[in-house]
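queue> holo job accepted (iron/sulfur cluster)
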Amino acid sequence: MSRKVAQTALRKKVVFVDKVLTKTYGEKSARAGEDPVDTLVETILSQNTTDVNSHRSFQALKNEYGDWHELLGEDHAVVSKIIRSGGLPDIKARRILDALEFINRERGRIELDFLRDMSPSEADCWLAQMKGVGPKTRSIVLLFSLGMPAFPVDTHIHRVTGRLGLIGPKVSREKAQEELGALVPKSEYYNFHINLIEHGRAVCRARRPVCEACVVTGACDHFSTARKGHS
Ligand code: SF4
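queue> job finished
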């Protein structure tokens, strides 16, 4: 199959899966109203932990420091202690302090609203200058706070799209972000992103996917391979 034909088939699959997941989990509309600095900090805190834990550590930080500027020059050990419920506190405290210090140094204050005046790729490049702010974190800021087209790939999306066969078996999360970004219609980024996560949590779970309850078995490579193995 030529690359062009394969891409067309994958695009059709995306449209089908998106439609079925939307029917199952509902249409999700982008809000894009969140403060980009809040989103950046919350996303750093969400690395390698559950939503509940990361939200708890984000709230603990917000309760302690009403304004991000109060964190400038703060002792890393103090921040680490406040956010410890979210896991990897030392690494995350360092990343947060580094990011806030970088923004303040570059902009004279801690805010990222100026990114709204940039193109998505310019905004992405600006954010990429910060140490420890990877593609997923950047695309979450772009999509959720700035309303820009970006397709973040978290662990659920990586797993589900891999099983569906939308990405190859050895494609990294970083590469998957690029490949899926090219396959999914931009207007569906937000909806598809949220619904894939919902599907990954509820049905296409990491250890034991509940294929018997899945609404997209007809489009799933993992399912058809497993079925062939049993026949
Ligand atoms: S059929 Fe199974 S493996 Fe495929 S998407 Fe559904 S739950 Fe996941």
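queue> The domain at 36-145 is CATH 1.10.340.30 (Endonuclease III; domain 1).
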